[in-house]
Amino acid sequence: MSATETEYLTQLGQRAKAASFILANLTAKQKTALLTTIADHLTLHKNEILQANAQDVAAAKQNGLTDAMVDRLMLDEGRLGGIIADIDNVISLADPIGKDAESRILDNGLRLTRRSVPLGVVGVIYEARPNVTVDIAVLALKTGNAVILRGGKETLTSNKVLSEVIREALTSLDLPKDAVQLIDSPDRSLVSGLLRLDKYVDMIIPRGGQHLQRLCAEQSSIPVILGGIGICHLYVDKQADLMRAIEVIANAKVQRPTVCNALDTLLVHQDVAADFIPNIASHLHSLGVRFHACVNSFHYLEGLGFDVTPAHDESFSTEWLSLTLGIKVVNNIDEAVGHIRQYSTGHSEAILTDNINTASEFMNQVDSAAVYVNASTRFTDGSQFGLGAEVAVSTQKLHARGPMGLDALTTYKWLAWGDYTSRQ
Amino acid sequence: MSATETEYLTQLGQRAKAASFILANLTAKQKTALLTTIADHLTLHKNEILQANAQDVAAAKQNGLTDAMVDRLMLDEGRLGGIIADIDNVISLADPIGKDAESRILDNGLRLTRRSVPLGVVGVIYEARPNVTVDIAVLALKTGNAVILRGGKETLTSNKVLSEVIREALTSLDLPKDAVQLIDSPDRSLVSGLLRLDKYVDMIIPRGGQHLQRLCAEQSSIPVILGGIGICHLYVDKQADLMRAIEVIANAKVQRPTVCNALDTLLVHQDVAADFIPNIASHLHSLGVRFHACVNSFHYLEGLGFDVTPAHDESFSTEWLSLTLGIKVVNNIDEAVGHIRQYSTGHSEAILTDNINTASEFMNQVDSAAVYVNASTRFTDGSQFGLGAEVAVSTQKLHARGPMGLDALTTYKWLAWGDYTSRQ
């Protein structure tokens, strides 16, 4: 990183930290007023935002981005309206800041409490989705945090306008505009630099693929919330209701195949494999699913007109994010659990069984953020879990695991009152 | 790191992970039996342990370690008895594993719960204190975690015997001995290697000085709990009771000057500085305290026979761990808060004031793990806070902040039961 870049990031960090001290002590009412003003300003500057986004879309097409990618970064009146409407949803959530827990009088005479407070400064690195710019800024402000945003370079023009509108809303209320800052250069070394700003940044949330997650885990000196990568498994036990299983598996695989909680690998108990595998494959095939089958399941599937490939090792270590499904026959629940322990990213796993002991065993032995009995893996989601908002889905174990609501953007401090009290 | 070292650490990690799955599902009764057996085995092998420790002590003396360091690594019958007695204390704590929170029926029909579970594998890097070997192993096992220990090289002989005795206790109960493993080579590159074992290790706790903390923050791809470094401040407001202040400040500074919650910098409001600074200095001087004084406080202190040095910038960024105290005059609370924000390590800060508004302001503006009104900083401690045990004192904001009890060695997983339920 050049000296200029270091200086740029240091200033960004210092300004964010300074702003965070002001944000930390806003009342819920002030934060509501702020979010309302942001929604108003976004509405006011709708045309400007859509024009900036049109430039990103045109450049993306020119640069040969896939239709799917262009679609993800595209805003229109409807989508922008949805983004603005979502702010109302965040406004309606309870403010998680300033709550006291574990309040008590200690034996040493102090009155102690553990108060929820904002983290301070949150750094978020994300892909080319302009909705995330607004979404994350709003969640950070709602919880009294300052935020440093680093979005995908393909949406830099949109993000610049969106963040400027939000900053203008802050200024209009005499709040520090540096509560929301965008890294406005596409230079990749700025990501590495951001990951070392531990003097100013309290948490890094990478919202992106495996490469970004790995980069953050390896390079960051700031605590990182890894997540959003799901190699998800569903195990069909020999005592599952095989008729009802079909719909659940189809739901897990095809309802929205491009997301992290979609099913990647189906594990089937050997005792029911011969009957069940052709049945489920037939149903999934009709929905457009392709298969990577282990030796045993390939045997049940070949020659039936399905799109089936013999599985290689990578078949089971791939998050498909598409209509491909790995299938593997296992001897028993131990082998199913062993496979999951080896290949899972710790996101979501499910078992289908009518046997209560088998269900308990699966829940106890599988070490993932969300473990389901007789349900689709697709439920791992802040909104489905009733958290109101979703900051990210954590697949690591510290601080927050699984869908992260507003609480995940808070920490606590211990406050103690004495009467000129000394320790004995 | 050599290929042999990589292989050594990988096997250590794999064995720890395998053991952790068994540990995770022990009942509280089984864990109590385990800890009791460990205490018994330590008593049984007392002589062996003391002999091994005597070798470490002899080598330490030969290698010219300071008396203080030799004292810290030395075990005798009394100290070993204390370590064993502490196990009873841990046994008596409630088991934090298996507790359900936020249990409810979701709108989508699932029954959801958030269950506390062990982290899995914890890596602990610590200095030459053999008591930590037992202490951390016991806390990890109590919470169903496997642990990889890396102690100071000066106690390697003691640690080998201690960990072998604990492993023997595990084996005697048919539990996996690899729940407790010691890195049994002093090679420093093994520390760096441990910090990259993210495939197997879920959390790193460095219990040691600033250099170790920094190394872990920069090199670890595993979440790290930084802590135990305290540049602690106490601010004497103009409305403090200046008589009663003296005892609290003396307590914060001299009761145990070598620990992280001892006072490092005294900030004094300018309106009371001329009277108070000579008074407090006189009392502290009688207790052996030396001073690093800012220009203004130096002016009040010089020529009175105290041991006083003009402060330089490092005076305020040093954790003294000794009978030295920085003193600075500030214009008002804002300057006090500003100084703390600049120099604090986020551990413990205190204000002395009889003004409720000033007290609130200090609590709201200071962003440290523990903030005190009219009390000594020395209270930041798991036992003083009533946590029963202290894993470490975290100065970072994610997962755990301040004194960490058993809960800090747990995470949670989301469990959901459906009736072959699909997402709409």
TrEMBL record, chains A, B:
Pathway the protein takes part in: Amino-acid biosynthesis; L-proline biosynthesis; L-glutamate 5-semialdehyde from L-glutamate: step 2/2
Molecular function GO labels: glutamate-5-semialdehyde dehydrogenase activity; NADP binding
One GO cellular component term: cytoplasm
Full protein name: Gamma-glutamyl phosphate reductase
Location of this chain's protein in the cell: Cytoplasm
Domain Aldehyde dehydrogenase: 11-288
EC number: 1.2.1.41
Annotated transmembrane regions: none
The protein's role, per its UniProt record: Catalyzes the NADPH-dependent reduction of L-glutamate 5-phosphate into L-glutamate 5-semialdehyde and phosphate. The product spontaneously undergoes cyclization to form 1-pyrroline-5-carboxylate.
UniProt cross-references to HAMAP family, sorted A to Z: ProA (MF_00412)
Keyword tags: Amino-acid biosynthesis, Cytoplasm, NADP, Oxidoreductase, Proline biosynthesis
Annotated catalysed reactions: L-glutamate 5-semialdehyde + phosphate + NADP(+) = L-glutamyl 5-phosphate + NADPH + H(+)
InterPro entries reported for this sequence: Ald_DH/histidinol_DH, Ald_DH_C, Ald_DH_N, Aldehyde_DH_dom, G-glutamylP_reductase_CS, Glu-5-SA_DH, GPR_dom
PANTHER family: DELTA-1-PYRROLINE-5-CARBOXYLATE SYNTHASE, GLUTAMATE SEMIALDEHYDE DEHYDROGENASE
UniProt record similarity statement: Belongs to the gamma-glutamyl phosphate reductase family.
Tree of life domain: Bacteria
Lineage: Bacteria, Pseudomonadati, Pseudomonadota, Gammaproteobacteria, Alteromonadales
Main subcellular location of this protein, as a coarse class: cytoplasm
Any GO BP annotation: L-proline biosynthetic process
A Pfam family the protein falls into: Aldedh
